[in-house]
Amino acid sequence: MWQEQLQITNPISIKKLFFKYEKEFVLEDINLEVKDKDFLTILGPNGGGKSTLLKLIFGINPLNQGDIKIFGNKIASEIPYIGYVPQNTNINLNFPISVIEVVMMGQNDIKKRFFGYKKEEKIKALEVLEKVNMKEFASSKISNLSGGQRQRVLIARALFCNPKILLLDEPTSNIDISGCEQIYQTLENLNKEITIVVISHDISVVLKHATKAVYINKRLTYHDLSKMKDDFKNMSPHVCEIELLEMLGKCKC
Ligand SMILES: Nc1ncnc2c1ncn2[C@@H]1O[C@H](COP(=O)(O)OP(=O)(O)OP(=O)(O)O)[C@@H](O)[C@H]1O
Q: Smaller CB count within 10 Å for the chain: N or C?
């Protein structure tokens, strides 16, 4: 049944969404269809509502008004098809945990986490580490990795349950330009199999890899980047990101 649903419905469908934490609306009249194998980036100013939208899609924030469907299903948190890499992942770097153990923490079944991992789970963890080019670090302590390497391990952890959609909230914050490029290259490779939705402030880098973009500042502006992709690939590294962001906020391409 799931296989049928996966084929006929969009991974994410949002209709007439309004959301507020307190009195003021943080998101207004959001409508969005994310199609199979889209690589969608969410851009916008600080406080514009990007993380709020991702948390609504993942079911962490409860819906106030409007509708979100994941593969046609209403309750996102019940669907085992979403991997989520949150903005601030609290991994205690002083805790002597290995990379492979961090990946296996992506196990949905809590009982398995406490009663040890099976050989197949270790094999699975190595497979997902290979997908993010981190297999050789499987036995390393997470504390010994660079910020960019650690972020790729967290992506592997989110991949552990074979998601069809991967949501990432600023995976490249505080990561240098080459680590940042490696992460987006990893996401581009993963995108051959799964739908990617990523919040980013690295506008010029992410636009080279994404196929669609939305600009969110309470309201949403949608951009299909496929026709512009070559322009972004050849973009000067000295492009003004603020101007680019303003342009995406105003234009409707
Ligand atoms: N738990 C919360 N309770 C009340 N207000 C919140 C909460 N989380 C976020 N907000 C407010 O909602 C608005 C949108 O916040 P959100 O974190 O979604 O923005 P963002 O676009 O992700 O910002 P940034 O780029 O800085 O991460 C902000 O005004 C923020 O202060």
A: N
